[in-house]
Write a structure and sequence with these properties.
It is built from 13 helices and 13 strands. Helices cover 40% and strands 15% of the residues. 46% of the residues are buried. By secondary structure, it is α/β, with parallel strands linked by helices. A seven-stranded mixed sheet has the order 1-7-6-5-4-2-3, sandwiched between helices. The chain has a four-stranded antiparallel sheet with strand order 8-9-13-10. A two-stranded antiparallel sheet has the order 11-12. The structure holds pyridoxal-5'-phosphate (PLP).
Length: 388
């Protein structure tokens, strides 16, 4: 976490904080409540500024980007379903937060339109346009497009501006999952002219875990997920996590100083070393990508073995998708890109942080080469070639 984000969090954890300024409930009208309400307002303004939003009140704080996405998709669906048939357009490589929410809504009567990606993870814009055009002809249809700005496994960046244009043309509401893009795409902003809803996550930008936000453009009506008090302009009931939100804002502020150019240089250096290893496939390299992400698989090397070997060497890399009792499920992202099951269970994601050093990258690439050679020597396992 960013130091400023840690300090802000500690301030609100009594007794570390100044109780007179940190104890009150922001919904209370007494002086103690007003003190904390002031901190909450400041945090909202800081985050809005970082995202280029004109209205801080368009941000509704949540417990995560997952909750924000649930709120966006379910909120739209339950708002519209009595009058119209809700159509949700989403890519096959979305985060589980979107996939599972959409599947749940399909069970409630929503119609899902799956937009494919190609072998490089690029969105099929033509297919999206065709499906939007066909669905928009019936005025009883409500069109909701939900796409990620950047993919969490490959780092591939989707063309949000072009999709926003399509949404405007066909009268669709556009929800963007911006959890990965904010803080990692240089100059990332939410374009209020094209995007009506956007999910954000504090821990993805160096803030605390368990805090997120949903951008809701003024005028967009959503049924709330949580009912109760009037917090967050009646959009999300329950006392807000002021300490977490203040810490979230400190992390947003620190993004101004984040050096993405150096992170990209380091990442490119890492990839140059990875490419020296025979049988390495780095994914999405022809596409615009997040500056800190490398998704790679190596012929004949299973993901879990690689992760465990690197773990023993002191490095934490992620599998494409969740592990079940020590083995990795095939990544739905790689499957959608056309790789077979064995390959899709073998890819690993290497992420650099703002504090990653050249020395760490050097020792990582050395360890990687050693672990791969060891695995290949021990095993004769040969992965089938990808269908790409
Ligand atoms: N969307 C994307 C693209 C993500 O990478 C993540 C987290 O990994 C999420 C949504 C969910 O974020 P949170 O952990 O805040 O629920």
């Amino acid at each position: 976490m960013e130091q400023g984000a840690i300090d802000a969090l500690l301030f609100f954890l009594s007794p570390a904080g100044d109780e007179r300024r940190s104890y009150g409930n922001p919904s209370s009208i007494h002086w103690a409540g007003r003190q904390v309400k002031g901190a909450l307002d400041d945090a909202r303004e800081t985050i809005a500024l970082s995202l280029g939003l004109s209205d801080p009140n368009s941000l509704c704080f949540t417990g995560s980007a997952t909750e924000a996405t649930n709120m966006a998709l379910k909120g739209c669906f339950f708002q519209e379903k009595t009058e119209r048939t809700v159509h949700i357009f989403l890519s096959t490589v979305e985060h589980e937060a979107t996939l599972e929410t959409a599947r749940f809504l399909e069970g409630q009567g929503a119609i899902l339109h799956w937009i494919p990606v190609n072998a490089q993870g690029a969105l099929d814009l033509v297919q999206l346009e065709t499906e939007l055009a066909a669905t928009a002809t019936d005025k009883k249809n409500f069109l909701l497009v939900s796409l990620m700005a950047a993919n969490n496994e490959t780092g591939v960046i989707f063309p949000v501006a072009a999709v926003g244009e399509l949404c405007l043309r066909f009268g669709a509401l556009f929800h963007v999952d911006a959890a990965q893009a904010w803080g990692k795409v240089p100059g990332f902003r939410i374009d209020e002219n094209r995007v009506q809803l956007a999910s954000l996550s504090a821990h993805k930008i160096g803030g605390p875990k368990g805090v997120g936000a949903l951008f809701v453009k003024k005028g967009v009506k959503l049924q709330p997920l949580l009912h109760g008090g009037a917090q967050e302009r009646k959009r999300r009931a329950g006392t807000v996590n002021v300490g977490g939100i203040a810490s979230f804002a400190a992390a947003a502020k620190a993004l101004e100083k984040r050096d993405l150019v150096t992170i990209k240089l380091y990442r490119d250096g890492l990839e140059a070393a990875v490419k020296q290893i025979p049988g390495a496939h780095i994914l999405g390299t022809t596409q615009p990508r997040l500056v800190n992400t490398t998704n790679v698989l190596f012929d004949g090397v299973r993901g879990e073995g690689l992760i465990m070997g690197l773990d023993l060497a002191g490095f934490a890399v992620s599998a494409g998708s969740a592990c079940n009792s020590g083995s990795i499920n095939p990544s739905h992202v790689l499957l959608a890109m056309g790789w077979d099951k064995a390959a899709a269970a073998s890819a690993v994601r290497i992420s650099l942080g703002p504090s990653t050093t050249l020395d760490e990258i050097r020792s990582f690439t050395e360890a990687l080469a050693v672990v791969i050679t060891r695995i290949r020597t021990r095993s004769q396992l040969d992965l089938p070639s990808p269908r790409v």
